[in-house]
Fold this sequence. Notes:
The complex is a heterodimer.
Chain A: H1 16-23, E1 28-30, E2 44-46, H2 51-63, E3 68-71, E4 88-91, E5 98-102, E6 107-111, H3 116-124, E7 128-129, H4 141-147, H5 154-157, H6 160-163, E8 164-170, E9 176-180, H7 192-196, E10 205-212, E11 214-215, E12 219-227, H8 230-242, E13 249-255, E14 261-269, H9 271-286, E15 291-294, H10 297-308, E16 318-323, H11 329-337, E17 345-351, E18 356-361, H12 366-382, E19 387-391, H13 394-397, H14 410-420
Parallel strand pairs in A: 2-4, 3-4
Antiparallel strand pairs in A: 1-2, 5-6, 6-10, 7-11, 8-9, 8-10, 12-14, 12-15, 13-14, 13-17, 16-18, 16-19, 17-18
Helix pairs in contact in A: 8-11
Chain B: H1 3-14, E1 19-20, H2 23-26, E2 43-45, H3 50-63, E3 67-70, E4 87-90, E5 97-101, E6 106-109, H4 115-122, E7 127-128, H5 141-147, H6 154-157, E8 164-170, E9 176-180, H7 191-195, E10 204-211, E11 213-214, E12 218-226, H8 229-241, E13 248-253, H9 254-264, E14 273-281, H10 283-299, E15 304-307, H11 311-322, H12 324-327, E16 334-337, E17 340-341, H13 347-361, E18 365-370, E19 375-382, H14 389-406, H15 425-428, H16 431-444, H17 473-476
Parallel strand pairs in B: 2-4, 3-4
Antiparallel strand pairs in B: 1-2, 5-6, 6-10, 7-11, 8-9, 8-10, 12-14, 12-15, 13-14, 13-18, 16-19, 17-19, 18-19
Amino acid sequence: MSATTPRTYVPRNVSVADIERLVGMGHAREGAPADSIAGVTPRLVVEPASTEEVSEVMKLASQAGLKVAARGGGTKLGWGNPPEALDLIVSTARLNRLIEHSAGDLVATVQAGINLDNLQAQLAKAGQMLALDPPGHACTIGGVIATDASGPLRLRYGTVRDLLIGITVVLADGTVAKSGGKVVKNVAGYDLGKLYTGSFGTLGIVVEATFRLHPLPEAVRTVVLNVRTPAQAGEFVGAIGRSSLVPSALELEWAHNAETAALYVGFEGIAPGVEAQAEATMQLAKTYGECHTVEAEEAQDDIWRRLRELPWQHSEGVGLKLTCVPTAVPSLLHALLTGTGSNRCLYLRARAATGVILAVMAAGAPADFAARIEELRRVAGQHGGSLVVLHAPPELKRAVDVWGPVGDALPLMRRVKERFDPNRTLNPGRFVGGI
Amino acid sequence: MDITQLAQAMRAIVGRQGVISEREQLRTYECDGLTGYRVVPALVVLPENAEQVQAVVRLCHEQGVPFVARGSGTGLSGGALPVEEGVLIVLSRMRRILEIDLPNQRVVVEPGVINLWVTQEVAPEGYYFAPDPSSQLVCSIGGNVAENSGGAHCLKYGFTTNHVTGLEVVLPDGEMVHLGGKAPDSPGYDLLGAFVGSEGTLGIVTKITLRILRKPETVRTLLAAFNSTDDAGSAVSAIIAAGIVPAAVEMMDALAIEAAEAAVHPNYPNAPALLIVELDGPAVEVEHQFQLVEQLCNESGSTEIRIAVDDEERVLMWKGRKSAFAAVGRISPDYYVQDGVIPRTALPEVLREIAALGERSGVRVANVFHAGDGNLHPLVLYNGDVEGEAERAEDVAGDILLICLKHGGSITGEHGVGEDKKKYLPRMFTEDDMKTMQLLRCAFDPHGFCNPGKVFPTPRLCGEVPGPARLHPLQQAGLAEVF
């Protein structure tokens, strides 16, 4: 048996100048408080300009025993557990190019640091889009992949995993590895794109990605229905599901103590198509409550721009993501709405037909918070789902396991991490089970 | 433990009926749908439930015996080719549909369930299972998961991987894990996504949660004849450029049309190229876009357009296409089904190159493909009784893959790498790419017992995980020491 000799790295004092030698003058610097992740400030920040430079930086970092986090737009850096340790942030700010847009093939290859809005603007010139609408307008493609961020449109187009067709990552030891390719249909080799998606930078640093694109819809329509109870919302969503309507998004918005909640049903397609679907939806909705159709494009844009953003962004509250089978959304909403005092819910948003709920909860004392999370996790678990604490002050995050139980595959996940990053160089402690 | 003892131990797990050890009976399982490769396994075991699969795998693991999982055996890359001295675990007795949850659009099945059964089961309520490989009458869901099977309708609806939300897996050491579930976004690594399409090298699925879809309100299908594959190709480009995402776009060339006509008489127009275009969705949208498709076909020089007026006509249109592989048997004693992918826009050029290749080598190639997503299925015709023809056909089939790669494509769109294409994998991926894929393999199957020798050209030992030295579990328990 050819066992590899265990390597023990002696952490070396890497300086800004050491890194500048790899990426050029002015592209590495000391870390500042603004670079902190959950209160942990890195010693160094580097902005490589190519895959090769990322690879060189990672070789140096891993040999020196540095702990590394990748950063894109920084919009979701607070997600996950606080880092166990952090020496170096690898920013993808200079990896910001659209490498290739093959409009005829509905495929685009980008560098990880490209801003999503910027990419969409370039694709729109050819009447196309990447069908992802995650929160955070400053977000980058790399960050969206690493956090598996999604928005209302997932109902129609799926999430990153359904659109990503090729990926290149730099592993902890500097190895550059791609999987997938540039064609939509491809089963050659393992589909590591899915493994990296949502892995929170713990397996490698995404440097390039290829996506399948969709045509921009010619027309959009939004139907708004006011409902009085979670159960009523559930009934309507069920009725939509049994109909032949094909909504692109279905979002429920519930403010605490509000008399009614609003259900937004979005349609995309050609003008006569969305008109017909909106009309049919109105017919269906009438029996449930007050409803109307929004036709003005600007007003619709406002609605969906708001609904894709994280609801806790401008609030003092804690941000939770709960999942369940779609039919259990009303039960979960009910459980959330019955919270009182420091556990009361300030605001709820549900991707009602997919089974995802975003909740803003008042931030109470750590012990109360932990008890409430446990209680809600039990309810979500009864419906096949989970609860993840996405946004909370570090002291509350430390009071709970932000990811919650992962099930019997956790040991396997640990083995995957051990193979890809045996020295725990990348984002140590931030992922499930302390990976 | 020798084979006789192993067979005995297996019988203790699955019963007498569940173990095959007679040489003649074992031969039934010597190949899958790719009959060019044949290996007789040492033993065939047919478990009836997940617990038996787990016990069988655990025994293999303990005894260091390699094993291969097999569903219906329709695979076309030799993925279920047995290993000599190994056990073939056949899942075809695990055929129960365990749960149907229509409101949440989920169906839970055992791996041996046939693809089409799922749709048949939920069709009366107006639902269906989207992935529809040509073999859907016989292929198993477990096999679909292993191969990430596609089908004609994956242009719009995606592949198996987009329609599986949960798996119960027996890992190569016999441990059982649950990946994903009925609800979305399980926290943790998306091992479900990494598992689907791993060609039986990471473990054996014992339970699968599928996503089913609501039947579309309207389906419209047309058949358009063209004077050349170039014209047909430009019609496809025009349809895509118009912002239409058809449910399916299929193309056949003259030789494929001839074969289909000889075999199932779909009454296709006699033309150098045919397109089948299918749209589905809400009625108003489909009607509008269907007219546009018709117009675009005409503008691209279509010589004849037929529109299916009812389901019967639609079925007939599809019958010719779906039976095209087997139909080629009518015009050639032997044939090899290739599976390659190109960027769709490279289609005219690639077809010219394939035609030139065929002429140069004197080998006939019939072309059938999923034109919407650039997935080619060239059928390389030969007569195995004529010396040298089989080899020549194999060379031509291989060269077609190299043409695909030259145009930025892939060596397989849906059939998998398996045994057949592993030598081409290094043409598509670097040594580092493949080493990185092997990291995943090593996390699941450090000893390499599970479908060994497939997918990757050179088997690799996983080695210990580098990093801080760690005690062996036996050491930890004080049962062993390392000197």
